[in-house]
Design goal:
There is one protein chain. The protein is an alpha+beta fold. It folds into 2 domains: 117 residues, Beta Polymerase, domain 2, CATH 3.30.460; 52 residues, no CATH class. Helix content is 36%, strand content 15%. The chain has a 4-stranded mixed β-sheet. It has a two-stranded antiparallel sheet with strand order 5-6. A hairpin with a 2-residue loop joins strand 7 and strand 8. Helix 5 runs antiparallel to helix 6 and helix 5 runs parallel beside helix 7. The longest helix has 19 residues. The N terminus is likely disordered. InterPro entries: NT_sf.
């Protein structure tokens, strides 16, 4: 998730991962956009992000690309806050990146390739959209997408990262250089009953920063202490 513009600093759940992928940096699609802009944009930013999410999700579904919604909109789909501050995020397979870029361009959307080689970017309804093929150190996998839940996103059904994968991607991103517990704490509270915390601990609980966050969740009674621990 990024702020407006081209800031591509690491966000929770995403870390640079070298994939070796190189896409063409130009190609604006046909002159007449297949995605007509609405006559008036939603008044609030969160609704604008949801509109962009629905549009991109519908495009990927029609084209048959495996994907799952990630980031703050995925949290919203699982029952979290509707207050969306940044952008829409979609997880795709690394090997599908070029095909997805082609689908976006055919719909009249400009595709931008940032210096990081683990995502591509576009803009829809004036909102930034990140299409990601690596989450927190690891490439997106077919198993991850197969575990996604099909949920309504403001009335449009689409696959959404399962809560365990979503929390794992957020916590695994913590490091000495990025450790914003405050942004992930409300997410953990919102989906805590849907997460397999044993899996999360097994995958990243031996790393210092994730372990510290899990300890914080225990002390705040968000999750139960690990079995065998005080």
């Amino acid at each position: 998730m990024t702020h407006n513009g081209e800031d591509t600093a690491p966000e929770p759940g995403r870390r640079p991962e070298g994939t070796g992928l190189r896409l063409a940096t130009e190609g604006q699609g046909p002159p007449a956009s297949a995605l007509p802009e609405p006559s008036t944009l939603p008044e609030d930013r969160s609704q604008a992000i949801l509109e962009a999410t629905k549009q991109i999700g519908a495009l990927l579904k029609r084209a048959g690309h495996p994907f799952a919604l990630a980031g703050s909109v995925a949290v919203y789909a699982h029952g979290g806050s509707r207050y969306l501050q940044h952008d829409a995020d979609f997880a795709i397979l690394p090997e599908d990146a070029e095909a997805v870029a082609g689908t976006l361009r055919e719909a009249g959307l400009a595709v931008r390739i940032p210096p990081e080689d683990w995502l591509l970017k576009t803009t829809c309804h004036g909102q930034n959209v990140d299409v990601i093929f690596a989450l927190a150190h690891q490439p997106v996998t077919k198993d991850m997408l197969d575990r996604a839940h099909v949920l309504p996103v403001d009335s449009v059904l689409m696959p959404v990262l399962c809560p365990t994968d979503l929390i794992h991607s957020l916590i695994s991103a913590f490091s000495e250089h990025y450790c914003d517990f405050g942004s992930v704490l409300p997410v953990a509270r919102a989906v805590r009953e849907k997460v397999d915390w044993d899996v999360v601990r097994q995958e990243c609980g031996d790393q210092p920063m994730p372990a510290a966050f899990l300890f914080l969740l225990e002390r705040l009674n968000v999750i139960d202490p690990q079995e065998g621990q005080p």
